[in-house]
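S1.2 Input.
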Amino acid sequence: MSDPLRIVAAGDHFVQPRLIARALAHELPEQAIDVRELTLGWPLEPFGPVAEVQEACGTEDEVIAALEDGAEVLVTQMAPVTERVLDSAGRLRLVVVCRGGPVNVNLDAAKTRDVRVCFTPGRNAAATAEFTVGLLLAALRRIPQAHDLLARQGSWKGSAYYTYEHSGLELEDLPVGLVGYGAVGSRVARALCAFGAQVMVHDPYVRGEIHGLRMTSLDELLTRSRAITLHARLTPETRGLIGARELSLLPPGAVVVNAARGPLLDESALCDALESGRVSAAALDTYAQEPLPPGSRLLGLGDRVVLTPHLGGASRAVAEKAAATAAAEVGRWARGEPLAHSLS
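S1.3 Output.
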């Protein structure tokens, strides 16, 4: 009998090791596997003081210790897979990262050591799209502000939103511009069309049929949109894509939503637009600096902003999809099949 395939499932408090192990067992029912479950991360206190979240969790030493028994496969969410880690794991041949990109892996070092690296694209597209629509509704109808007045302050003053001057906008017939039409943007477009919004899309890289009206230029989209949602990838060209000039093109009282990447939006310019009334409300889930620093101007605009701490992709389904997609890659590798999402 051949030795079992040794796999380290180095998850965290989101993509938990047990989810990875369960997905691997489902994917490889006939394969003898030895899965070592390892939880990496900060102490979890969801409603109390929480340590600052880092892009990588766990330490090099923890990962090295987990791999020291001759593991051939590492499945992880955010563990640091550095040159030192790779040097210490002589039998390691496959790393699968349960994220949209293997940003925690030293790809050059992996390639030099003949270690294949895979990732799990698209796992959070539906969750982020739903969250984006939720942010848009919250900003349009002042839902968090009304909740805070009543539930936290015991005040009925939120009833002032039931006046013409202070009431919000509804999605039906609302011109909404989508900047970007990838996996998330296309889902948002379909959802907004179901609400009856007038959906407009600007994405120079998308061809073929879309849900909504295609705008040939960003400027045209902005001048016609009473609300915009951002869905572009962050590249050198899109960094600061929406700045003071672009915000000035929006109709007075427009609403801005960003659950994509913080640096797509010039936060200082947005604060200026909110303070002047050019933009009536904004809903943000991502920021130029995360966590949002205590001195951020956004924190002083509570009546005009909806702020969430990068939760767009946080659903149980996302964690389960990530584990299943990662396990499928391990299955392909174990069977000698071509990998679906490999970078090296």
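S1.4 Remarks. The radius of gyration is 23 Å.
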